[in-house]
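Slide 14.
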Amino acid sequence: MAQRVLYPDHIEPLVQFVEETTPEHIVARAHDKLAAGTTVKDMLLASALAVVRSSDLPPGHHGGPLHPLAGLHAVRHIAARLPGEYAMLPVIQNVAVANKHIHSPAMGPYVLADAKPVSENGDVEATVKAFRTAVSRGVYNACDHYFLYLLEHLSPMQVLELLLEVGVPKNQLDDHYFLFPVFTWRALEYFGWEYAKYIGRAPVRYITRPTNPAMLVDVDALIRKYELLERDLRVKTGEDETVAVTRLADEIGRCNDFAEIPEMLARALGDGLSLEGVGEGLSVGGSTLFLRSLTGNPMDVHINTGANTRRYLLRQPELSRRIKLQALLMWNTGPEVRMAQHMLAPDIQPEPDRVAFLPSHTQDELLVEIEALIDRLPVGERLPTAGLASWRSTDEVKQAAALAQQYANCDYAPEPLITVLGQIACRDNFTEMHAFKHHQATYEEFHTTRPSLRWRHLVAAVQAAAISHGRIQDVYDHAAEVMHF
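Slide 15: predicted structure.
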C-alpha cells in the first residue's frame, strides 16, 4: 500500500500547519507565524508542499494546486517590494487559497503518494520515449514515475522542455497547459530544485490529461515557411532594433484577428529581427490589446502573463530553438487570450482625447486619484450573475487607465505607482492569484522593455487593478483586522 509523501524534517511541521488549520483561522494564524519570524520563503514552500500533497486537480483548471503554485513566483516578488506589514499580505493570500483547496470537498480528501522513479531498463533515452508514449495515451500515473526518474538524470530545463513538448500544443485548449509548468519552474528556481520531485509532479499530472490530438493546430508550417530552424537567428536585441520592435508592437496592437499574429511574428524573425526583439514586440503589442479590451473579467490576464512567460523561456540557453519558436507562435491560441478578440475597442485605448481633457496633475496627485478611483469601486457588488466571459469593464476602469496614461505621458517615477498597484493586488482573493500574476508580469515587462515602449505595461496594470478590485476580498479584510490597517 502506498504511503503519502513525507517532507524533510525542517519543513514538515509547517506543511502540516497549512494542511490542518481550519480555513476560518488560517489568515490570523499565518500572520502570527510570519510576525513571529517564519520566513516568507519557508511559509510559501510549506504552502506549496501542502497543496500538492493534500488537494487534487479537479476537472478544468480551477482548484487543487494549479493556481496556488502558479502564483508563487509573483507572490514572493511582490512581498519583497511592499513596505511594512503589507509584505505579509501576498504570502497570507497564497496560504489561504492553498488551505481553502485542501479543505474543499471538490478537491479532497487527497494524498500525494510517495511514488518511486521508474525507468525503461535504466536508459534515459528509452525512458524519455516511454514518457512521451504515456503522455500520448494520457497515462498520467506512468508519467509521474518517469518524471521522477528523469529529474535524476536530466537538468531541470531539459525536463521542462519535455513538459513543454506537451504543454505548448495544448495551449490552444487551455492557456494553463503552458503556463502551469513554466510558473512552477520559476517557483522552483526560488525554492531549490530538490523540491521538484514533490512540487513538479502537479504540473506533470495536469498537462498529461488525455486530449484529442486532432484538435490541435500545428505551427511548424510557419517555422518551415520562414526557415526559422535553418537560418542563423539573432538572439539578443539592442537599440538598433527599436524601430522594428515598435513597428511589430503597433501591428499586433492594432490587430483585430488574432489568427494573423503568428505570421507577423514569423515574418519579423525571417526579416532579421532578433528572438528577444520579437518577444518584446509581442509583449508590448499584447499590452496594447489588453488596453483595447473591454472585458470586465478579472481572470483575463493571460495576454500579459503569456507574453511574460514566453520572454522568460527565450532567455533560457538550454531550451531548444524549436520549443521557443513554437511557444511564441502559439501565444494567440490560448482561449483566455482569444476571448479578448471578441471585446476589442475599434482603436487604441486609452483614447487620446480622454487623456488630453484630463486636468493636469502632479505625480502625487495622480497617485492619489488613481488609488481613490479604484477604492471607490464597490466591494462585493461587482459580481454579475452572467458568466465571467461576458463581463464588461465599466467607464471607471477606462478612466483609471486614462489617468495612468497621463502618468506615463508625464514620465513620472514608476516605483510609487508600482507600490500602489501591488497593494491593490494584495486585496484580491476572487481570482486565486491572477491579479498577483498580472501585476508581477507587467512589472517584469516594464523593466525589460525599452523606455520608449515600456509604459504601456504599467497602464495595462492599472486597468487590470481596476477590473479585479472589490470582487471578493474577505481574506484582505480579515488580515486588515489582524494587522490593524
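Speaker note: Residues 251 and 346 are 14 Å apart (CA to CA).
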